[in-house]
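Lab notebook page, bench 4
Experiment: in silico fold of construct C2
Operator: M.H.
Input chain length: 157 residues
Purpose: comparison with the prior construct
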Amino acid sequence: MSRAKEHFYALAAITMIGLLLAAIFIAGPSASNAAPLGAPTPVTYTQGANPPRDMVFFSGTPIAVTTPQRVCYQAPEYGKLDLQYSSLPAGVNNVTFSLEASNDNVTWVTNQTIINANSTPVASTMQQYHLYGKFTCMSVTLANATPVTIIAKGVAK
């Protein structure tokens, strides 16, 4: 091979390598190598160290008094309650269900009102609620002494 051809091939190889390096510098790093724009938000579900706990607030015995009826559990280690409930008035009566919380078992704060002065039967319904404080109660208040069958059972987790 002649010396001229060797010089030509060497010059062509150097030129191609130079063009390749220039293209890499102009294009910059690929997006997959870049750092994220912000810290990713972790998505976690924590069951906790405690096993789920059954809480039977009302088991279906008719209530026929107008003073609020309250059933409580000490459960500060739980944060959520899957509550299944129903009410069946024997006549016309307004029913109010509410979840209450306390840290001293004396002063009660209504966290969530589940049913507010409802006079129609409530079929079995299930919803999830947050638990607060050291003690969790369900309170039932009736407008009159007409009996109402109430079922309220929960699983704390």
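Observations: The helical segments are 3-27. The longest strand covers residues 53-63.
Next step: discuss at group meeting.
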